[in-house]
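Following up on my earlier thread - several people asked me to post the actual chain instead of describing it. Fair enough. Here it is, all 89 residues.
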Amino acid sequence: MEINQASRAELESLSGLGPALVERILLARSQAPFKDWDDLRRRVRGIGEPSAQKLSTQGLRVAGLAYTKAEVSLSNEAVDTPAQTPPSR
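Reply from S.P.:
Thanks for posting it. Predicted structure:
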């Protein structure tokens, strides 16, 4: 089932997608189709990694793709950056 084309009833038939979460999905989708799972997770509160994995296992697809952990962008991970120190005089 493709999230960018699924009806409200189709989405609500999936375990883990209740009426409130489906409403958030439909609202976000009305603004623009989801590009990938990372886009879906960023734009819809309540879709985290465990939910994405569960929904993908049930056959939900985003842009034709199943969820994989590798799709999570680096922007969602903690990145160590060196502290900026002022130049010495």
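The helical segments are 8-12, 19-31, 37-43, 49-57. That should answer part of your original question.
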